[in-house]
Amino acid sequence: MNSLSHESTPKFTVSFPAPSGHQLAEAADSDTTVYLWYIGSHGLKHEAISFYQPHISTLWSRGATIKLYDLTAWSVFSGIGKLDHQSRHVAAINLFAIERIQAIASSDFIHWLKKPPNPEYMQKTLLVREEIYKLSADIPEAGLKMGQVFGDEFPLLAPLQKLDVARCYSALQYLEGIYLVETALKTQPKRICFHLVNHERNYYPAPFAKDLTHLIQTIHDVSIEFWSTSYGEAAHHRPYNRGKALKGSLTPNDLLTQPNQKPRSTDDDGKH
User: Fold this and answer.
1) What is the pTM of this model?
2) CATH topology for 12-127+171-240?
């Protein structure tokens, strides 16, 4: 990558498409990796299963790679759980061995925070930006300091140790986005899409592409897209944190409307 000219250096571009996530899913293809927040910090909700099934089915039929994200480790910010906890459904989903569908745990993001790429840039440039803390400004304090959650194993977060975890919530989500992009690039997709609901994409303000360029290398141009789908009656509603949790076992039919169906080629209808 160092031998490339400035003009030919691969770039990250970030966009916030206007159509709903379900419409955008129709435009996905085999070069697309899509993240969905699937398992909430307090379990896999029936609401999430029913809400996301048609979205997952559409994406899968278009040939996209789907990453179902488990937020269990985030429960530690409510004073419960542990940083290394993950949902039992992560292993279950991966045991289904459905091609291009994978569950990944937020506990892996927590582990990544111990040794992130270019920690000096992160600490001195990224983590001092006011805009990445903005969405946490009005969240009621949790009464739990960052230093109580993240100890000496997380030198990156040392400057934040005295802050309430609620004040750092949006900043940590921003860092999580960087981690997820880096993780997706292991398979070199040309598009990495975050399938979010309501105002969640506001957690990723303008410097995101610049920060990615400083922190991650890519061998080709990559488009990062933050999709938004309306959900619930209020902006703070989330399908993965609403209603009752699944007590039984998830099945392949809960993910896909027709799990044995072969993906249709994106060339079949001439759209791509």
Assistant:
1) 0.89
2) Rossmann fold (3.40.50)
